[in-house]
Amino acid sequence: MNILVAGGTGFIGKKIVETLSDNNHKVFILTRNINHHKNSFGTNIKLIDWDTINPTMLSKISILIKLNGEKVDQLWTKKTKRKILLSRIETTNLLYQFCEKNQIIPKQLINASAVGIYAKNNALYDNPVDENSSHGNTFLSNVCVQNENECQIFNSYQDIKIIQLRIGVVLQKKIVLLLSLPLFLSIPIPGNKNYYFPWVHVDDIVGFVSHSITNNLEGVFNLVSPQFSTHKQFFKAIINHKNGIISWVLFLPNLIVKFLLGDMSEMLLYGPKTKPMNTLESGYKFKFHSLKDALTNLP
Question: What is the pLDDT of residue 173?
Answer without folding.
Answer: 87
